[in-house]
Specification:
The protein is built from 4 helices and no strands. It is an all-alpha fold. It has one domain. Helix 1 runs antiparallel to helix 2 and helix 2 packs parallel to helix 4. The longest helix has 25 residues.
Length: 106
């Protein structure tokens, strides 16, 4: 179990380093970093199961991919793309909260 946690934390660190590489609205990058930190806390404290963590990480990766695609397509994020990312991050934030507080991990 500790090996799974260490592997997951290492993967989170790699993902966070990629998030900081994008230029643009700082709010998106800050939110992504905060959400990654919240997931890492859930792993560390045992409030997220490995399955929950995997699902949350897959969705975070999808959001990161969409952001990268949007940035490549037109020299940055336009207002519509920024709004779409904010809505996705809001939904993901809610999922993180629910999974951390559903009492399955402890």
């Amino acid at each position: 179990m500790k090996l799974v946690r260490l592997t997951t934390i290492a993967a989170l660190a790699l993902m966070l380093s990629g998030v900081a590489a994008f230029a643009g609205p700082r709010t998106i990058n800050k939110r992504q970093a905060r959400q990654q930190h919240r997931i890492a806390e859930g792993i560390e404290h045992g409030t997220l199961t490995p399955g929950e963590t995997a699902r949350l990480e897959r969705q975070e990766a999808r959001i990161n991919e969409l952001e990268a695609k949007d940035r490549r397509s037109g020299g940055g994020l336009n207002a519509r793309e920024h709004g779409q990312l904010e809505r996705l991050l809001n939904s993901e934030s809610h999922r993180i909260y629910k999974q951390k507080h559903d009492a399955q991990g402890k």
